[in-house]
């Protein structure tokens, strides 16, 4: 029951955090699909504090999902910590990155935390995809089922849920890996621009959809 509530809370919290971040992008100056997403949280932006709070809320949601998903718990908690670091260490105006622009220590810390956080989240997707394929025990006594639920094991009869969780993780991985590779190449060889901005937003959209979907699907499996 506790994991059930944590899974639902994770989905709600991630949705709320992503919603706040989207609001800051749309309501802020300029076109919302241009520039790095993190630019909304830089000093001088009208909704900088709101953006950082939204990112912090999203990080909390990732941590809650880590508590609900036993096998990917460590990876999700690490990803949450890195997202939290990005929220408390904003980049400077324009979020400059080497080798095209001079950068500050805060820029490097923020960027490293963001990139590593996405990489760890992709690893969590992979672990979720792999572990969700394992079949549940065919039979279990009432006492055994209660003990398994307390340990975070999926209850008997949730094959459909596990299949949905695995399918969602697989789709998320298939989308995340090429988007992340394209984003990395764009950052290295092109620099700041519309292409990188669109790739970043697509990557974040996939991540948020996976987090929310996994949280909602994990709720019945965590009971």
TrEMBL record:
This is DUF998 domain-containing protein. Keywords: Membrane, Transmembrane, Transmembrane helix. The lineage of its organism: Bacteria, Bacillati, Actinomycetota, Actinomycetes, Micromonosporales. It comes from the Bacteria. The chain crosses the membrane at residues 7-27, 47-65, 72-89, 109-130, 168-190, 202-222.
